[in-house]
Automatic annotation (TrEMBL):
The keyword Lyase applies. It is an enzyme of class 4 (lyase). Residues 32-370 form the Orn/DAP/Arg decarboxylase 2 C-terminal domain. It comes from Alteromonas arenosi. It catalyses: meso-2,6-diaminopimelate + H(+) = L-lysine + CO2. Its EC number is 4.1.1.20. Its cofactor is pyridoxal 5'-phosphate. This is Diaminopimelate decarboxylase. Belongs to the Orn/Lys/Arg decarboxylase class-II family. LysA subfamily. Pyridoxal 5'-phosphate binds at G239, E274, P275, G276, R277, Y372. Homodimer. One of its GO terms (molecular function) is diaminopimelate decarboxylase activity. Substrate binds at R277, R313, Y317, E345, Y372. Residues 35-280 form the Orn/DAP/Arg decarboxylase 2 N-terminal domain.
Length: 416
């Protein structure tokens, strides 16, 4: 459930009319809801119950400083994949001791920075990376906490671009190399083995692949214990899906409970979850203005001021996200439109064949845009990135200014 709802035909973000925020800050504009973020994070946290655990929000889903600071205040941990994400977590008030560092290509510079910040652990994805972390730790006179990301070879049954736990994927260490790699790690004096990790994919809509992966990892943990290598935490990654159209993913509490259930009798093993999309996905919308209505020979187009550079998911994955008007028009007749942006690509669309009663100048909201929205935005076609606003109770705050580029452009051409 989120806090973007209609009241008397007007779309509200919490208690603020979205059209008022758009009038103040312009479009295209991402709007996030603090209450929704909090509700989702708490759903994970409370459903695990008393089992020792840490919810490490996946920063890649939405790294807005306002969003991170809401989660940091709840006591969240963070899953990062770059030094830039670590810097943002720290700037937002997050605790580096609750940070896990994932990703297949960590540079020596990033490792050094993360060591200096005393992060919780590195989720190591290859033997070469293990060696690099050891080398950097020796050079810095530090001991690095490490967890190996195991590729459990489980089919996540999701879009092939966001499936990560199969043998054919670049992620993690193959299960049959796991024991040898742990033995190598345990033999390196500047490494401290603390955990085991996996992440099988994103936008999963079934529980069974998560449970399968977790069980496979528990078997490995027992085999390691026989070799006197003791794992302190099990990190099952993120990947829980959200409802964009008619998917029916398990809710965060059902998912977290199912994970905790598998951990019964293992109270010494901390459970780490890395949800991204399930926390921020439905906590955000993208607001855009209809610039032109264009009747083509075969299709009608609504040309809006947001484009694939602002929200890439439809173009990249043919992802479907709901598009709704900010003001409902109860007695107008709807027409079927492709909702397209101004970018010079035929693949530049936000939605296809959408039935809407709209006119030029109307404002629309693309729902479920809080995850993998702004973070994947670019300056393609030398367009400015959209602004982002976090609605916090009754106030709207600007949390990331529209880029300076716009000032430059206005200045050069003397457009007021
Ligand atoms: C290692 C890791 N953890 C967590 C996540 C978060 O995934 P999601 O947003 O699907 O929960 C991802 C992205 O898929 C990831 O690669
Ligand atoms: N960017 C993807 C998710 C990638 C998950 C990252 N490992 C999406 O929008 O669905």
């Amino acid at each position: 459930m989120d806090y973007f709802n209609y009241e008397d035909g007007i779309l509200y973000a919490e208690d603020v009319a979205v059209q008022e925020i758009a009038a103040e800050y312009g479009t295209p504009l991402y709007i996030y809801s603090r209450k929704t973020l909090e509700r989702h994070w708490r759903a994970f946290d409370s459903a695990v119950g008393n089992h020792p655990h840490l919810i490490c929000y996946a920063v890649k889903a939405n790294s807005n400083l306002g969003v991170l600071s809401v989660l940091a205040k709840l006591g969240s941990g963070f899953d990062i994949v770059s030094a830039g994400e670590l810097a943002r977590v720290i700037e937002a008030g997050g605790d580096p001791k609750k940070v896990v560092f994932s990703g297949v290509g960590k540079t020596a510079e990033e490792i050094e920075y993360a060591l200096a910040c005393n992060i919780l652990c590195f989720n190591v994805e290859s033997e070469s990376e293990l060696q690099r972390i050891s080398d950097v730790a020796v050079r810095c006179g530090k001991v690095a906490n490490i967890s190996l990301r195991i590729n459990p070879d489980v089919d996540a049954k999701t879009h092939p671009y966001i499936s990560t736990g199969l043998k054919a994927n670049k992620f993690g260490i193959a299960s049959d190399r796991a024991l040898a790699t742990y033995e190598l790690a345990a033999s390196l004096p500047n490494l401290h083995v603390v955990g085991m990790d996996c992440h099988i994919g994103s936008q999963l809509t079934e529980l069974s692949p998560f449970v399968d992966a977790l069980k496979r990892l528990l078997t490995l943990i027992d085999q390691l214990a026989d070799k006197n290598i003791h794992i302190k935490h099990l990190d099952v990654g993120g990947g829980l899906g959200v409802r964009y159209k008619d998917e029916q993913p398990p809710l965060p509490d059902a998912y977290a409970q199912a994970m905790a259930e598998q951990m019964q009798g293992r109270e010494d093993l901390m459970l780490i979850l890395e949800p991204g999309r399930a926390i921020s996905g439905n906590a955000g919308i993208l607001v855009t203005k209809v610039e032109f209505i264009k009747a083509g020979e075969e299709k009608n187009f609504a040309i809006v001021d947001a484009a694939m550079n602002d929200l890439l998911r439809p173009a990249l994955y043919s992802a479907w996200q709901e598009i709704i008007p900010l003001k409902q028009k109860s007695n107008a007749t709807p027409t079927v439109y492709d909702i397209v942006g101004p970018v010079c690509e035929t693949g530049d669309f936000l939605g296809k064949d959408r039935k809407l009663a709209i006119s030029e100048g109307d404002l629309l909201a693309v729902r479920s845009a809080g995850a993998y929205g702004f973070v994947m935005a670019s300056n393609y076609n030398s367009r400015c990135r959209p602004a982002e606003i976090l609605v916090d109770e009754n106030q709207a705050h600007v949390v990331r200014e529209r880029e300076k580029q716009k000032d430059l452009w206005k200045g050069e051409h003397k457009i007021s």
